[in-house]
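Inverse folding, one chain.
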């Protein structure tokens, strides 16, 4: 394949004052954006027909651009790339305007979004058909499918309610992190407050209300279009089942799955809520939770059971403890695992795990100088070469062994890696990778 030269990595400082490591973005899997996860394109679409990238490739359109974040999600057939200069580039499905270009045409080559050209972007998140972009000084913006108010803009809801041009989210506090689910969004403010918007059919907004009401003979679920604060977090006594409110919880991170959520407090408590099919909330039950409930398995202060990071997959959850060990629960497409409480992934012992990107059918993990994948594959998203259909056990992705991965993201049928190129050996390994110009 083609070869490209990478520029030297740097550690810069954003306007937030936090050091940011930049690197080279890689991609593998399918780039037939209109058909992945569907089998066929929708009426009126002209689908692409390009060969999958069976192992990680350099993204040619971003050559020479220092990238600090790669973004996708378990419900998403689109992705974002954020540069150290605060620019944002988009790629993939756009039929609802979720890429923010002011139209619904598919984007086949990573392209800067003009709307944010004069803003400093600090983060983004991808849902099924909507997205949220965070800026340093200009607030958060929602775009794409908004039929349930999931963009959080206060806009009218209803079928076909799309925002093809980004619109500012209706939140007065500064938002520092967000996570988009299937048809809802969670926001975290700099004060540690959580806000939610969109569908609450399974309790995923965490406001003790599913929004259900009866219209004639049908159950209808109302939507929240203006993000509301999730005021309270709770714990349940395992013996008496008594529920107690935990006062003054400050949240540092949230993650949204299909219809379920998790949050990590500044004290490293883990909370989950929403849809609980297959026990994806980790409470040893399968009953939905309408309020954030602490996962009792994890205990702050215990290095074996203290949560360093945790994320929702499409139908389950993953967590990494302070020792770099991985736990999972719910439906995670690994050895047909369906467990209603956290269990360790013994196959990952020996790897010091840094980051994990749970997807729908596959999951990606970064460890010391290795990128690891597991689960089902349809179009090369495991990055293990042609012919690989699945890997129930974690295995190394091809071509990137020896490279330090800064970050990873797992979208629908595709995987993103951000790798460090700060030394000559890493640079040579990256130079040996194929370049994707599709």
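Residues assigned per position:
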């Amino acid at each position: 394949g083609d070869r490209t030269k990478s520029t030297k990595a740097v550690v810069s400082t954003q306007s937030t004052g936090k050091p940011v490591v930049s690197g080279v973005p890689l991609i593998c899997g399918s780039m037939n954006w209109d058909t992945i996860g569907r089998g066929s394109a929708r009426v009126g679409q002209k689908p692409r027909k390009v060969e999958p990238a069976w192992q990680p490739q350099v993204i040619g359109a971003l050559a020479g651009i220092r990238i600090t974040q790669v973004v996708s999600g378990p419900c998403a057939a689109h992705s974002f790339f954020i540069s150290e200069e605060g620019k944002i580039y988009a790629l993939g499905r756009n039929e609802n305007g979720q890429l923010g270009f002011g139209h619904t045409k598919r984007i086949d080559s990573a392209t800067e979004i003009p709307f944010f050209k004069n803003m400093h972007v600090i983060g983004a998140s991808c849902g099924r058909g909507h997205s949220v972009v965070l800026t340093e000084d200009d607030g958060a913006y929602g775009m794409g499918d908004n039929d349930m108010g999931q963009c959080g803009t206060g806009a009218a809801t209803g079928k076909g309610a799309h925002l093809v041009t980004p619109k500012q989210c209706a939140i007065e506090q500064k938002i520092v992190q967000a996570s988009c689910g299937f048809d809802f969004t969670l926001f975290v403010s700099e004060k540690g407050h959580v806000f939610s918007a969109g569908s609450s059919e399974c309790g995923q907004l965490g406001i003790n209300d599913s929004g259900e009401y009866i219209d004639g003979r049908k159950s209808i679920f109302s939507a929240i279009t203006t993000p509301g604060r999730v005021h309270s977090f709770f714990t349940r006594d395992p013996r008496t089942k008594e529920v107690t409110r935990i006062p003054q919880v400050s949240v540092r991170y949230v993650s949204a799955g299909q219809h379920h959520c998790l949050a990590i407090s500044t004290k490293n408590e883990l909370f989950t809520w929403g849809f609980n099919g297959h026990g994806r909330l980790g409470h040893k039950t399968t009953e939905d939770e309408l309020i954030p409930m602490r996962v009792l398995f994890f205990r702050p202060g215990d290095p074996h059971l203290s949560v360093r990071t945790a994320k929702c997959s499409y139908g389950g959850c993953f967590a990494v403890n302070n020792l770099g060990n991985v736990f999972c629960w719910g439906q995670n497409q690994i050895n047909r695992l369906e467990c209603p409480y956290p269990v360790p992934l013994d196959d990952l012992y020996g790897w010091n795990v840094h980051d994990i990107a749970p997807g729908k059918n596959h999951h990606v993990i970064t460890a010391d100088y290795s990128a690891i994948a597991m689960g089902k594959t349809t179009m090369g998203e495991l990055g293990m070469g042609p012919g690989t259909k699945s890997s129930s056990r974690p295995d190394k992705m091809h071509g990137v062994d020896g490279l330090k991965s800064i970050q990873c993201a797992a979208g629908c049928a595709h995987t993103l890696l951000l790798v460090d190129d700060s030394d000559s050996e890493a640079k040579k390994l990256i130079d040996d990778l194929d370049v994707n110009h599709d």
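The chain is about 0% helix and 45% strand. The chain has a mean pLDDT of 91.
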